[in-house]
Write a structure and sequence with these properties.
The chain contains 22 helices and 2 strands. With about 500 residues, it is an all-alpha fold. The protein is globular and about 70 Å long.
């Protein structure tokens, strides 16, 4: 029984590993001229199986496995479900965007599966060394995926920049682990807090925490560690950007939440001001940078920097509201971003034929379906009611206001107003009727995988905006797994918890 329970605690990771290995074994024995798209369907079914396994893990009791380095709880399972869902939709988008004879297509799907293993280990790992291994597995996969279009100059260039800057960030993270061990005598996340209580080297622990935050801030593209983001987004294939802008970031945010609230709660007076600054700077630089962009992918890159700032606002709340808001926003942003890049991937193709915002003029007239889906996700990114983007921002800013972070909430609201301008610029281009002299925008026929991917992302975005109660309750349950919140059972009247509890009740 114990052995089977141990396997069940890493069941999604096992499924993704077997899927990647199966793809790598099948690919070489297939005829050279045969289409590799069946391997994509194998990757999608593997992701679906991992998603089902992740949902099954909710029924498991909280516990650890493999000498206590992996922990299954509501928090880790929440992000397991999110990451597995992202991989599933991304596999469908890649199936639509690539040609059957695309070079090394099997390797692409295998890298997606192996990268997912690293991301899942990051969310369930309670040992910093295992988190580092998961981070490296995820990073190496995304480095290669970013440069997968080897016949273009921009793709290898973006991969090289991503790799070089990512190596520096990894060094910061690893050095932070070393300093944490020197200060506390342990690298186990669940034991670091106890080690800090008796440590005589708190300054070293503070420096170690700062290095860890810097390493993870790079992974989530928070300013001022965002310099790689626009170039990598522009050079990488669009379906890969949809993946790498969501799943690795969700895993990194999960690690940062666990480290901040479970390992270093006593040092909140040190890391909270740091995250406050990162949030404000990221929101401002991201939105101001996006205003100046004419390339749609670079615009979305700066937008992702701003959204990282919105999510970091929730970190400063220092309560279950903050963790729940961050978790909910991670889901909302991931679904919106994967969805909009699905449209961009199909309209521009794997070769990114449409790069400028002006290139999307008349998209809604050439393909009402794509134009409508594009408009829907742009409105959700703005934060229009009845979309996941609205409720994600509402939850974050409500939690910040009720915790006393008034100025940070004001900065966030002002930046949300700035974001309207560049999102509406794309929306206007989409519904601008092309002139007779304008070049004809040739939009390929929408395939079944893309229809399924868009249907899933639109449906989830609507659910998050109209009936968010279930996801909110799961996010709050995930937040309550941290020992520092174990005493917070009943929401205090007048706080964000009470507001969210009322919304949950009505939504049900």
């Amino acid at each position: 029984m114990n052995g089977s329970m141990t396997v069940l605690r890493i069941l999604p990771e096992i499924i993704f590993t077997l899927t990647g290995v199966a793809i790598m074994l099948i690919d070489p024995v297939m005829p050279k001229q045969a289409s590799r798209k069946p391997l994509g369907w194998l990757a999608a079914f593997g992701a679906l199986a991992a998603l089902i396994a992740s949902l099954y893990q909710y029924s498991l009791p909280v516990g650890t496995a493999y000498f206590g380095v992996v922990q299954t709880d509501a928090f880790s399972v929440f992000f397991h479900v999110l990451i597995s869902g992202i991989i599933l939709v991304s596999a469908l988008v890649v199936l639509d965007a690539v040609h059957p004879d695309t070079e090394s297509l099997g390797e692409l799907f295998a890298l997606m599966s192996f990268g997912a293993v690293g991301m899942l280990l990051m969310t369930s790992g309670v040992e910093l060394l295992l988190v580092f291994i998961g981070l490296e597995i995820s990073s190496i996969s995304t480095y290669i995926l970013a440069g997968f279009r080897r016949k273009t100059a921009k793709s290898p260039e973006s991969a090289l920049k991503y790799f070089l800057l990512g190596s520096f960030a990894t060094a910061f993270f690893l050095y932070g682990i070393a300093l944490t061990y020197g200060a506390t005598g342990t690298t186990r996340i669940t034991d670091i807090a106890a080690g800090l209580a008796t440590s005589h080297a708190l300054p070293i622990a503070v420096v170690g925490l700062a290095f860890i935050v810097i390493g993870l801030a790079f992974k989530v593209s928070a300013a001022p560690f965002h310099l790689w983001t626009p170039d990598v987004y522009e050079g990488a294939p669009s379906p890969i950007v949809g993946l790498m802008s969501t799943a690795p970031k969700a895993a990194a945010f999960a690690v940062l939440l666990r480290i901040a609230y479970e390992a270093f709660p006593q040092l909140q007076n040190h890391w909270m001001p740091l995250l406050w600054i990162l949030a404000a700077v990221s929101m401002t630089i991201g939105n101001l940078g996006a205003l100046r962009q004419k390339n749609v992918k670079r615009m979305l890159a700066y937008s992702s920097i701003a959204h990282a700032g919105y999510l970091l606002v929730a970190f400063t709340v220092l309560s279950t509201d903050g963790v729940a808001a961050a978790s909910f926003y991670a889901v909302a942003y991931a679904v919106m971003n994967v969805g909009i890049f699905a449209v961009i991937s199909h309209a521009g193709g794997y070769e990114d034929r449409l790069t400028l915002i002006e290139d999307y003029k008349g998209l809604a007239y050439r393909s009402p379906l794509l134009g409508g889906v594009m408009a829907f996700f742009l409105l959700s990114l703005i934060g229009i009611p009845f979309t996941g983007g609205f409720f994600g921002k509402f939850y974050v800013f409500a939690a910040a206001i009720h915790s006393g972070m008034i100025w940070l909430a004001i900065i966030g609201l002002l930046n949300s107003g700035i974001a309207v301008f560049y999102y509406l610029r794309v929306l206007t281009a989409t519904y601008t009727k092309p002139m007779d002299s304008s070049p004809v925008l040739n939009v390929p026929r929408v395939s079944a995988p893309l229809c399924l991917a868009m249907a899933l992302t639109v449906a989830v975005t609507l659910v998050l905006g109209i009936i968010p109660g279930r996801v909110l309750s799961m996010a709050r349950h995930a937040a309550e797994t941290f020992p520092v919140f174990s005493t917070q059972q009943t929401p205090v009247p007048g706080t964000a918890s009470a507001v969210m509890a009322a919304i949950n009740t009505k939504a049900r």
